[in-house]
Design brief:
globular; Rossmann fold; six-stranded parallel beta sheet; alpha/beta; 6 strands
């Protein structure tokens, strides 16, 4: 009898769609990947509804960045619906103060001006230095940014700047959790990811070093797809 592929429900990050997983997906052959269309939401409630309606009743939920934060939020509200969690480049404390200020500046500029895509400055915040000139990565990021556009970016920034700190809720999440982050991530504090892993009852943590074969900044699924796929395969093999 042929084994049924394990279904994974994937939530992308801010100004991302299923293309966020484009470099990872071919490395997860044998899994059944389903994508949560987060960009269709304009409110936090709509984001929650999209996760609920596009995920399995008992889900192996995978979230990146904002998607990972929302995955924790969903898991805290509905722990009975979670089989496993994979959290990538996320702190469930919320955004760093510097990132809050950066987003407020971007919102102010967007409200007054047309949106012309990701700036070089923003790309340097998102990516490891080794990838800032890699068009196979920056091109995907720019394509998503331009295709999804100003309305999506404004909605996601304005409705998700204020984030509840869920650290004290982590000890109550009984299912297996894999956390993958990067030491060089400028947006998600590596210390927070370590603290999350320490609080969870059943957690695995992998931090990508700056001198790794696949160095990474914030955009782990695009920058370090081989490393991420290896960690995910090893995780699912044990749960």
């Amino acid at each position: 009898m042929t084994a049924v592929p394990l279904r994974l429900d994937l939530i992308p990050g801010t100004l991302c769609d299923e293309r966020m997983w484009a470099r990872l997906a071919p490395l997860l052959d044998g899994f059944d990947l389903h994508h949560v269309p987060l960009h269709k939401a304009r409110t936090r409630e709509q984001m929650r509804e999209l996760i609920a309606t596009h995920s399995a009743p008992k889900t192996h939920l995978v979230g990146f960045s904002l998607g990972a934060y929302l995955a924790v939020e969903y898991a805290v509200a509905h722990p009975e619906r979670i089989e496993t969690l994979v959290l990538i480049a996320n702190s469930c404390k919320g955004l760093l103060p510097a990132e809050v200020e950066a987003r407020k500046r971007i919102v102010g500029m967007l409200e007054k001006n047309a949106y012309s895509g990701m700036t070089r400055h923003r790309l340097r915040e998102l990516l490891a230095p080794a990838h800032v000139e890699d068009t196979s990565i920056t091109g995907l990021i720019q394509d998503m940014a331009l295709d999804l556009g100003k309305e999506v970016l404004l909605a996601q920034f304005t409705t998700t700047i204020d984030r509840v700190d869920y650290m004290d809720r982590l000890p109550g999440l009984p299912f297996p959790v894999l956390i993958v982050g990067a030491e060089g991530d400028q947006l998600a504090d590596a210390a927070d990811l370590r603290a999350m892993a320490a609080l969870l009852p059943d957690a695995r943590l992998h931090m990508i070093a700056d001198d790794a074969q696949e160095p990474s900044g914030h955009m782990v699924p695009l920058e370090a797809p081989v490393t991420l796929a290896q960690q995910m395969r090893a995780f699912y093999a044990t749960v």
